[in-house]
UniProtKB/TrEMBL annotation:
Its cofactor is Zn(2+). This is 3-keto-5-aminohexanoate cleavage protein. Pfam families: BKACE. InterPro entries: Aldolase_TIM (IPR013785), BKACE (IPR008567).
Length: 311
């Protein structure tokens, strides 16, 4: 695909990977999530990717009531595209993971394109103790867990949320096979262009954060989807900025945020999501790349519009 004229910045505000012990800046309460999301939009993010957390101890929750404590506030304060997770968190069933999205009927949701090992347990070695027992349990459990996204699960999400709610998807591809899984659904007519393909690097269990892998994922996506897709890049931890920058130079869009990395630079914790958005925006603008507004992102991705959601 030719270089996109403008770059969409997605910000993944809190996720379900990092835990409260890892950084004091992780947004946990609905207020913190809303404030971080609004700040990220002010800094230049046109898509806000959102998970919910239990306000008491920060553990990931699929509870629609918690989502509804921050979604309306974000909608009232920004014109950003709200993108809700369907990946949820470790141990949640597909029904759990869809509870919030099916109630909210957002413009966009993430959709993981295959089952995989998703290893968080190496992070156990970095922290001598944890604020909450659930954090250590959560990390250890990933040693023997499969992040389940079967063909049946994906079909269910495409039907219930895609057809049923007019929601479009950020197709999360953690490895080359995931691109082929997406192509399978395209061939069956269950997914229509333009596709928003988020290639993900550096998760233990997925493809590594290597520049040759970035080029390979781009090449295969081009082969499979031609000019029918918008490409986006995210990379875990210290690889976040370098791979996003490389991808943007190659015509891609970018995703940053505290879900993907808790740092703003080497050894420096990001104080909020806006700090990472402002940093990638500075880099892109120094490279003479223009940043897409939410309205432009909606047009590029053929979204239904912020007035068509249920929050």
């Amino acid at each position: 695909m030719a270089n996109a004229k403008k770059v969409i910045i997605t910000c993944a505000v809190t996720g379900s990977i990092h835990t409260p012990t890892m950084t004091p800046h992780l947004p946990i309460t609905p207020d913190e999530i809303a404030e971080n999301a609004i700040g990220a939009w002010e800094a230049g993010a046109s898509i806000l990717h959102l998970h919910a957390r239990d306000p008491k101890d920060g553990r990931p929750t699929p509870d629609p009531k918690v989502f509804m404590e921050f979604l309306p506030r974000i909608k009232q304060s920004t014109d950003a595209v709200v993108n809700i997770t369907t990946g949820g968190g470790q141990g949640m069933s597909v029904q759990d993971r869809l509870a919030g999205p099916l109630q909210a009927k957002p413009e966009m949701c993430s959709l993981n394109m295959g089952s995989m090992n998703f290893g968080l347990f190496p992070m156990l070695d970095r922290y001598p103790s944890f604020k909450h027992q659930w954090e250590a349990d959560h990390l250890e459990a990933s040693r023997d867990a499969i992040f389940r996204n079967t063909f049946k699960d994906i079909e269910f999400i495409l039907k219930e949320l895609g057809e049923g709610c007019g929601t479009r998807f950020e197709f999360e591809c953690y490895d080359v096979g995931h691109l082929y899984n997406l192509a399978h659904f395209v061939d069956r007519g269950l997914v229509k262009p333009p596709f928003f393909v988020q290639t993900i690097f550096g998760i233990l269990g997925g493809i590594g954060a290597d520049h040759k892998n970035l080029m390979h994922m781009r090449e295969i996506a081009d082969k499979l989807f031609g000019d029918s897709y918008q490409w986006s890049i995210l990379a875990a931890g210290r690889h976040q900025m370098s791979l996003c920058t490389m991808g943007a130079i190659m015509g891609g869009n970018v995703r940053v945020g505290l879900e993907d990395s808790i740092y703003a630079g080497k050894g420096k914790l990001a104080e909020n999501n806006a700090e990472q958005v402002a940093k990638i925006r500075r880099i892109l603008e120094e490279l003479s790349l223009e940043i897409a507004t939410p309205a432009e992102a909606r047009q590029m991705l053929d979204l239904k519009g912020g007035d068509q959601v249920n929050f």
